[in-house]
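Marked as duplicate of an earlier ticket. Keeping the data here for the record.
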Amino acid sequence: MIEPRPTYGITRIDQPEKKNHGFYVRITHRGKNHQKYFPDKSLGGKTKALKAAKAYRDELLSKMPKYKQEAAARKKRRIKQSGVVGVTHVISKSTKGKLYEYWQAAWVDADEKRKTAKFSITRYGSEEALELAKKARASGSKKKR
């Protein structure tokens, strides 16, 4: 098997308020999702949880065709960084295959409900959409308390 990138398909989950810490493996192949959670606590720590997650991921990839393994080894996503927690760059695909690109702001309101605001890059341009998302995030966070 071709060696995948170190963190391909693996995400770190840290939610102190829920005492939820671990690694989550997610790999999609031909429309089927393969996912599993590896908690730090029950596996004996962060290092052992990561090792178990990588072993699971590698086992999944070994059963997949060579082209999928090669993609896991070389494919890198370019993620635009906003520099602000809660402001992310998103590219989504419609059911008809059209791509939509936007900056999204996310925060928790006074009622402890998650709120989001999306700003189209097509409509505003990347820089203005980013600034609007940052402002939305800042004003939404201030209303929390």
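See parent ticket for discussion. The longest strand covers residues 20-29.
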